[in-house]
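Risk register update: the risk of archive-format incompatibility is retired. Evidence:
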Amino acid sequence: MGFPDKKELERALKKLEKSEGTLALKPDASPLEKFRFDLCQKFLKFKKTNSLNQKEMAQALGIDEPKMSKILHHRIDEFSTDRLIELYSRLEPDLKLRVG
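Archived output:
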């Protein structure tokens, strides 16, 4: 088995362009971006700690599964910070926020 030809590589690249993995925090992220990233991490931690799958998390929050996927993969451009806090507080009603 050799290296794939050019056409096969182009097909693979096109397929990858459509995929959406987890976004990483930029090295020069603002404090707000870091805060929002940390909120997403809290959702992930809750999911893992409570052995829930994505569908169960979505149901617990009263949102659809694609939105839950976006939160879990840090693709949160369509969510305001207030909305993320409100959603997470459904999971952890005693949530305490800290700045700084």
